[in-house]
């Protein structure tokens, strides 16, 4: 979720008037993301106007939120309080989450090759917290963005489910990706084999998109909320969460590659994950999300995934 202080949008946006008519004057648009637009209605309450429908249905999303919220965590997580359908548009009323976006609070300066220490500390707090929440049946029924079936369908192990997702995703637009990634087919098979070779691991809650806007911090940089579950939310190996977070925390900065290496090594050391496991999951993430926003060289995420694969040691073994 990103802040969108857009005056022109506010003048043409019908939703503040709609919410005012429902007894919420002074509505303010506070953010927008893949799922939709968020409005602050009052202290403690926000509304999300969805741009579509959760691929597995709102009831399942609401259950996943509830599964997470029942566990004591050092940060808040979303909770859906009410749901309505307004002319075919889904609106959810949710508890307001505290803090401000991590990237707004303390972005690293362009000249810094190392991330601020508080970023690593905050991410470790979030990763440890989510890894303490057991994966649930509702989470196993979720599909990830771009796919047409629950990730766990037909599988008992997360790495095996992910290996099959890699195959399905590579088949979608692999020809486009092959234009930027040499020897793509062989790399896909090496990644799938590496996934299938991973040992069993605990099955915990996976957010799957811990980018800076999705972590809110307080004035000291301490994480106080995690939001926007849904992009790659599932139940799975907590090492996958760590691997993806290391890769996506700084995707486009001037030292993004160095920051990915720095965080990968930090998480391996502090959380006890093998670096080869983290690299395997990073390759899988690139192979399963590369085409979600576009398949041309003008698409930043597509180019980013291709670059991840070109330098990934598991993919290129």
From TrEMBL:
One Pfam family matching this protein: APH
Coiled coil residues, start to end: none
Residue span(s) of domain Aminoglycoside phosphotransferase: 27-251
Protein name per the record: Phosphotransferase family protein
């Amino acid at each position: 979720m990103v802040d969108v202080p857009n005056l022109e949008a506010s003048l043409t946006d019908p939703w503040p008037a709609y919410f005012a008519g429902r007894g919420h004057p002074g509505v303010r648009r506070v953010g927008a993301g893949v799922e939709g637009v968020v409005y602050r209605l009052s202290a403690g309450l926000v509304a999300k106007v969805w741009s579509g429908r959760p691929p597995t249905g709102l009831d399942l999303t609401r259950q996943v939120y509830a599964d997470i919220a029942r566990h004591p965590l050092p940060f808040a997580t979303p909770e859906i309080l009410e749901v309505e359908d307004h002319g075919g548009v889904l609106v959810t009323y949710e508890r307001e989450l505290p803090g401000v976006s991590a990237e707004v609070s303390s972005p690293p300066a362009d000249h810094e090759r190392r991330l601020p220490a508080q970023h690593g500390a905050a991410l470790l707090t979030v990763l440890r917290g989510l890894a303490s929440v057991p994966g649930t049946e509702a989470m196993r029924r979720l599909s990830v963005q771009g796919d047409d079936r629950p990730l766990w369908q037909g599988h008992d192990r997360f790495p095996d489910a992910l290996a099959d997702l890699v195959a399905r995703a590579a088949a979608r637009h692999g020809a486009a990706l092959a234009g930027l990634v040499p020897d793509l087919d062989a790399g896909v098979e090496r990644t799938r084999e590496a996934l299938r070779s991973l040992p069993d691991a605990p099955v915990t809650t996976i957010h799957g998109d811990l980018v800076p806007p999705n972590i809110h911090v307080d004035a000291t940089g301490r994480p106080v909320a995690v939001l926007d579950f849904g992009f790659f939310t599932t139940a799975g190996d907590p090492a996958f969460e760590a691997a993806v977070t290391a890769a996506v925390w700084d995707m486009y900065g001037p030292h993004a590659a160095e920051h990915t290496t720095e965080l990968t090594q930090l998480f391996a050391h502090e959380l006890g994950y093998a670096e080869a496991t983290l690299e395997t999951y990073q390759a899988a993430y690139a192979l399963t999300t590369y085409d979600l926003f576009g398949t041309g060289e003008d698409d930043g995420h597509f180019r980013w995934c291709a670059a991840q694969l070109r330098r990934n040691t598991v993919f290129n073994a």
